[in-house]
């Protein structure tokens, strides 16, 4: 994976690439070259992180990310050493899952969502949104459902989403990066509308912005879940077929590890509103060396047979292998 981001004062729209420079493949359960697999540490407990738990010890330095001529978002910059005590590392299996990096798929996703809104194909006002950004290790699911910087979710807030939930594997990422990014991007607009973002404080809540940490195998216990998909297939009750859950699920760079795709898809089906919920997914076509990619996820969705896919964007800019943005909806 990429080296630490350039600390130059002049912002550059560059993003890390996917590589194994700091990755312990044995720790990810691949068992390369016949070596025994090392057991992964247990995942941290799933918790809700309150807006008031923003870190006061490590400050992120906000810098602009130009999405297009009409939209510029601010993102923080913090080092893995300051937060996790790990220098020049993108991944430490079971401890740190890459959430402090701005992955290129997140920006691809915001650009695509912006185009969808501009063309009148998408509206966020009043919607319930879950941003998932996550990197994974072995069979352990680590959640951008892992949001990291949270830029796609922040964009939905600027567009009027009523409920925005951010999820990442690491609570530290939420405290040091996601929450500051949400505040610096959303607070100005919301204050102009006489609203305050809060989470279980004595102030009003509008919109409902919340933050959750934990891995994909257990985080559904804290998120808004819809009606179980297997039960939906077995019932003819129209009242039961309509359910809660999220209207829109956003995820970027979540499909790189082949071993995690079934668990990711299972979580999506638990959390997506049926029948009108949609998923927007950004990722690389292939993640060489770990077997994942957008096409592997598409194969899983097609085999299940309950959703259809639509390619919205393809990016081949030479900074990485081909990247794509897809939309999934129920048939």
Structure description:
It is a single chain. This protein has 331 residues and is an alpha/beta fold. It is 25% helix and 18% strand. The chain contains eight helices and ten strands. Helix 7 links the parallel strand 7 and strand 8. Helix 3 packs parallel to helix 4. The two termini are 37 Å apart. The N terminus is likely disordered. Its EC number is 2.1.1.85.
- Main structural class: alpha/beta
Task: For the record, give the distance between the C-alpha atoms at the N and C termini, rounded to a whole number.
Answer: 37 Å
Domain unit count: 1
Beta fraction of the residues? 15-25%
The proportion of residues forming helix, as a percent range, comes to 10-25%
CATH architecture: 3-Layer(aba) Sandwich
CATH topology: Rossmann fold
Order of helices and strands: EEEHHEHEHEHHEHEHEE
Low confidence ranges: 1-36, 134-145, 200-205, 229-243
Fourth-tier CATH superfamily name:
Vaccinia Virus protein VP39
What is the number of helical segments per DSSP (H or I, 4+ residues)? Answer: 8
Number-wise, the strands total 10
Kindly report the spatial arrangement of strands forming the biggest sheet.
Answer: 1-6-5-4-7-8-10-9
Biggest sheet character: 8 strands, mixed
Subcellular location: Cytoplasm; Nucleus
Enzyme class: transferase
Family: Belongs to the methyltransferase superfamily. METTL18 family.
GO molecular function, one term: protein-L-histidine N-tele-methyltransferase activity
């Amino acid at each position: 994976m990429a080296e630490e981001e350039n600390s130059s004062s002049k912002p550059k729209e560059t993003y890390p690439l996917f590589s194994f420079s700091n990755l312990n493949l044995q720790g990810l359960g691949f068992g390369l070259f016949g070596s025994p697999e090392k057991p992964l540490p247990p995942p941290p407990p799933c918790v809700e992180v309150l807006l008031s738990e923003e870190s006061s010890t490590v400050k992120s330095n906000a810098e602009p990310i130009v999405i297009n001529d009409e939209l510029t978002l601010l993102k923080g910059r913090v080092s893995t050493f300051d937060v996790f005590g790990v220098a020049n590392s993108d991944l430490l299996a079971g401890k740190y899952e890459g959430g402090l990096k701005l992955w290129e798929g997140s920006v691809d996703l915001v650009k695509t969502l912006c185009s969808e809104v501009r063309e009148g194909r998408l509206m966020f006002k009043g919607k319930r949104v879950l941003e998932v950004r996550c990197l994974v290790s072995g069979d352990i699911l680590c959640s951008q459902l892992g949001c990291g910087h949270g830029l796609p979710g922040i964009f939905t807030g600027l567009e009027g989403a009523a409920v925005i939930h951010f999820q990442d594997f690491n609570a530290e990422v939420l405290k040091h990066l996601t929450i500051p990014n949400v505040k610096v991007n959303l607070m100005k607009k919301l204050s102009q509308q006489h609203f305050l973002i809060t989470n279980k404080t004595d102030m009003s809540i509008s919109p409902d912005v919340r933050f959750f940490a934990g891995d994909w195998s257990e985080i559904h216990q804290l998120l808004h879940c819809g009606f179980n998909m297997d039960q939906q297939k077995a019932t003819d009750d129209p009242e039961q077929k309509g359910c809660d859950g999220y209207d829109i699920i956003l995820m970027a760079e979540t499909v790189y590890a082949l071993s995690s795709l079934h668990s990711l898809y299972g979580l999506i089906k638990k959390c997506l509103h049926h029948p009108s919920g949609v998923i927007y997914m950004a990722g690389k076509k292939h993640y060489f060396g770990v077997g994942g990619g957008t096409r592997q996820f598409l194969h899983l969705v097609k085999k299940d047979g309950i959703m259809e896919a639509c390619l919205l964007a393809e990016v081949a800019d030479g900074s990485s292998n081909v990247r794509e943005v897809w939309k999934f909806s129920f048939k």
